[in-house]
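Re: [help] complex structure
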Amino acid sequence: MSTAEHPVLSTQGQAFLASVENAKYDRQITSGVQKFADKKVAGDMQGFYTEDELQAIVELKGTDRDVESRMPVKITRHYFEQAKNSSAMQRLIKASPDETYDLTGSNDPGKQMDYSPVEGLIHKYELGLIYVASTCSAHCRFCYREELIARKDVARPDGAMAPKGLAQIEEICAYVREHNQIVEANGGRHPETGRERLREILMSGGDPLVLGNRKIANWFSALSEAGIESIRIGTKELAFYPDRFDKTFFDMLDRFHQLYPRTQLRFMVHFNHPDEFLKKDADGNFIRHPEGGLEWLDNTYRSVQGLASRNFLTIDNQAPIIRGINDDSDALRIMQRELRHKGIENHYFFCGRDIVGHRAFNVPIEEVWQILNKSQQGLSGVEAHAKLSITHYIGKTEVCAVTNEPLLGVPHGENGVVIFKHMRGVADAANRGKVAIVGRNPEAIWFNDYEDRVIFDEAGLFPKSPDESKPGFY
Ligand code: SF4
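Output below.
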């Protein structure tokens, strides 16, 4: 392996890469709804879409409502096997004409391109996010990275339109080094952006685990040598293709930890529904394990155990709550309990993002809160760690509470209130803990649906009131 191939790596890093086995995987992927329409899929997959469903989708091809130009269809054999017996999983993976019925929404939710100093890097918060792949083993219909996966043009701050590009190791590491040098020379904060040292990178996409072991290892070692202390890996591979977590992958992780013991690995996994990892009996019920908990699919269980048994990494689940998939308190309660039992922390649930077509998927904010709150009734404290997050353009925000009783004498409080808490802002967390209180609107699926009923807003989530005499009050 030549130095030219890995110019940002030390000799140790290059030796590490040379030791990594690049295994091949056969995910048995089916791509494109046309294959189902043409009956060019395996015999047992042919009834996955009904003839009516196929006709409705095919009729939209080439029109503004083409569902696959919004999000290409892709499914693995493993996911198909589970989805056969799960309406939730079918809704997650099967295209539907409803998706493009209302195309309201943003091609760049969170205005990420405003925070992209280098192609493929979003440096919005204290952590950096890098796009390292533009696909996943299968595609969730509700995906909030549809613009990347469907290779759509997005607007750059200079007005140019172009698809989002992928991060390149050399460029990202050069940015990290330069940013951290400037921060250090300036007493701990960047003089222009106010950001602190870049300590953490989230490898995202798409799914980083569609890359080969050696490419992943190259990212790990290069980021670590550039000064990154924690690397997050955002992946849904435990649901789409759990066999990806094989011996060669775990060998690579172990070797990486041996050579770079100070760099933490944080797996941010993505399960939406317990059907994605639990066995069912002939009646469709989950199966109780004689030693406690429920029976998991063998390969998913093996992969989770492989991760959970390594004390140098953490595993957190985060998932949006989506209409027809997991807007179900009982399913979410089972999922949270089982994940925690097997060593996976419940980190965040999300309200759906305002992506193009979001009205087909998003559950109203207050309903999501009620569903999650109900799902956590009966869970122990450690099982019920997950917060409900909604990503405002100015930063990550928690939906803390929805009240049922009127707030007497307070305009807009007649039907109760919703309390949002600001968690993390652009560049820093100076406003962390500040709240906004709005009158309830059971139909609201995004912040703008509350703009006419703001009661108090010290967090700055809503357009300012003309009356500035009482800061925070409207
Ligand atoms: S796993 Fe994540 S990035 Fe991949 S298709 Fe699903 S939502 Fe999108």
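The chain has a mean pLDDT of 93.
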